[in-house]
Amino acid sequence: MAVSRSLESERKYDVDDRIAVPPLARFGEVHPEETVILRAVYFDTERRDLARRLITLRRRAGGGDEGWHIKLPARLGRVELHAPLADEPPAELLTHVAGVLRGRPLREVARLSTSRTVTRVHGDDGEPLFEVADDLVSATDVGTGILRIWREWEVELLSGAPEGGKKRAALLDAVQRELETAGAEPASSASKLARALGRSSLTDLPPVAAAGRDSSALEIARALIAAQLDALVAADPGARTDETDGVHALRTAIRRVRAVLAALRGVLDASAVDPVRDALGEVGRALGRARDAEVRRARLTALLGAEAEAVGDELAELGPALIGEALDEYRTAYEAVTEVLDSPRWFDALDALDDLVARPPLGENALEPGRPLVREQLLRAARRAEKRWKKADDDASRHAARKAARRTRYLAEALTSDAAPLFGGKVRALGEAAEALQDALGEHRDASALAARLGTSDAPGHLRALADSENDAARAALREAKRAAKRFREAGAALD
Fold it and tell me: Which residue ranges does the record assign to the CHAD domain (predicted)?
């Protein structure tokens, strides 16, 4: 079953029964449409997991886009996912919120009947600019049985609206002035579901404030974990649906949160933090096996394309088999990914992260000034990475140096992020230098691993030629790692 995706840019307004939609001819050609009846049922878990993340799930009958809809928050509006009408929510749709639902059952939370009259405005080129939906809504809170009735106008930009956030906002502002002149007021509630349930907002949880330079260690911990958890939940659907780089994105998000948790062991009780890191590590290893096969396939594809002319027809015949072998390895590893992402291990880890934010278990350093504490953690991470690099003389020790550089990078990026803008240019420079060292050592590892697979003693000559090419790439990467290590050392010294 196909799931479609669109970006909604809309605003809502409260209106009473005495006013009419104003003339909109100054914006373009006006096309009034006939009134339709929309009947919607909204669903959530007992804990209101969807609403707490400002997500709605509904089944709607009637109108031109009837079906199942999920609406997700986005920077410039809301993302809407749509699937055809069916009795039950399609699995292909629910997979996009599996990391939020975490195996918990859905239940009806509200039933809405809406009488909608749409006025659509087209631009000079004939394309639809926006529409104003005049909605009379009757909503029943399933939990309490309370019936609420209201009227609202909903303005939504359409395909002919200008591109770019500023231009789209300007158009919405201009329409808003017309509607307010007619008597409309900005809506008192963020969504129809919130209003049906008698709330001003979908979520009942206060937002976690960004940490500042004067924040306690606990405040910094909550801000960082909340941001990292948001990144995990956002990356979960891409890995489940095998989107391009979806596995890699979720694996990276897991590594970031593990790096942050490691730095916070003295701030939060280690007995609560360590099991979460272990569980995330287990999921990360499953993702890593799939990612390794994915990288190997990509390297083989690029290598065969670059070297095919030099090694001749034999390689051209063997190449698809080599790529197919890597693809088979990926498919096998990806099956394990799908299993672990639907496992209690993963869902429990996400729940535990929620608890660390909502009810953080205090460690001995929780109430200390946070900035000096996390700065020292960052310096320790940098010193550890430099020490491991100095001892890196084989593949295993270089991999250990790479992991230490990666942890330093992720911690530096977390401490200069919007969630915790605690430091400035020097810490950003350390993060960038750590990333360069991580990338160079990663290139060395990937090239060396593929060379070892291709260059066995009994391999045909044309495969050994490919192995030689990968060994050349590994040596070049090691030279780059030495240069990156020098920059990393200098960036760390600038912080001491």
Answer: 214-496
For residue 50, give both structure tokens. 């969807």
Distance CA(3)–CA(96), nearest Å, equals 10
Is 259 within 8 Å of 407 (Cβ atoms)? yes
Facing residues of 148 across strands? 139
| pLDDT score of 311 more than 60 | no
Mind listing the domains of the chain with CATH numbers?
4-196 (2.40.320.10), 217-495 (1.40.20.10)
Buried-exposed string 446-467: b where 16+ CB fall within 10 A, e elsewhere: bbbbbbebbbeeeeeebbbbbb
**Coil/strand/helix, residue 160:** coil
Q: What is the pLDDT of residues 426-437, one digit of tens each?
A: 999 999 999 999
CB 57 within 8 A of CB 89: yes
Rg (CA), the chain: 27
For residues 70 and 80, is the Cβ–Cβ distance under 8 A? yes
DSSP string, 376-439: HHHHHHHHHHHHHHHT--SHHHHHHHHHHHHHHHHHHHHTTSSS-----HHHHHHHHHHHHHHH
Which parts of 56-199 fold into alpha helices (H)? 91-94, 98-101, 165-182, 192-196
